[in-house]
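I am still getting used to backbone structure tokens and would like to learn alongside you. Please make up or recall a protein chain and show it to me in full. Would you write everything just below, so we can both look at the same thing?
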Amino acid sequence: MSKHTVGLALAMLLGCSVAWAKIPPAPPPTPEAKAAADAKKKAAGEKAKAEVAAAEDAAIQNYHANMKKEGKPIPKPIPVAAASAPAKGAAPKPQSDTRKVKS
């Protein structure tokens, strides 16, 4: 073996031993750091919601403009009632079966 091969093998052995070494865990975050991270996450969520709302508005405006360009009437929005959640502890209502029973 040449000196270069032995040196390369030793360098790889040293590099592997360093890679396997354990890194100590990071210290726990302080309450101020936790609060700052929560505020940052909340701001990012609000920004994402605002971006989605802006994209929806742009899509609606584009749809209305295309309908006007084609000379079609713009449909009126249909209000949708929100579903109500069942009371806590209440049993779910059974589904009605409208199929006729074969005798």
Observations:
- The chain is about 55% helix and 0% strand.
- Residues 34-72 form one domain.
